[in-house]
Amino acid sequence: MDDPFVVCPYNFAHRVHRSRIQAHIVKCQPNYPELDICPYNATHRVPKLEIRSHVLNCPSKNAIFPQDKPPKLTGSLTTPKPILQKDYLPETDPNHEIWDD
Questions:
Q1: CA 28 to CA 13: how far, in whole Å?
Q2: Phi, psi of 33 (to 5 degrees)
Q3: What would you measure as the largest C-alpha separation in the chain, in angstroms?
Q4: Could you give the CA distance from residue 46 to residue 55 in angstroms, rounded to a whole number?
């Protein structure tokens, strides 16, 4: 039940477990006419005339490029106030020299 059957793209009479379809396609491919390979899923084999419509409507395309895009984050960036030497070096320090001025 965890591994459903899928149909071979070369011979629709061939039903294969989904986990074995890639190996089956390699064996079945030499016996049938050339089919184009989908750029989104290599197990999708489509006739040359139908490849364009398949690529536009491929179900695997949504897994790679989801329709719902993450929301844009908005906010304002501020430049932090510079820390000057006189702000963190106490005047009681014997080596007190201020180079910021």
A1: 12
A2: -65, 155
A3: 92
A4: 10
pLDDT band at 98 (very low <50, low <70, confident <90, very high): low
Per DSSP, the three-state class of 45 is: strand
Which conformational region is residue 53 in: left (phi greater than 0), alpha (psi within -120 to 50 degrees), or beta?
alpha
Other C-beta atoms closer than 10 Å to the C-beta of 44 total 19
DSSP bridge partners of 19:
none
Report the alpha-carbon distance of residue 32 to residue 44 in Å, rounded: 15
Q: How many angstroms separate the Cα of 5 from the Cα of each of 40, 54, 89, 94? A: 20, 21, 74, 83
Q: Is the pTM of this model over 0.70?
A: no
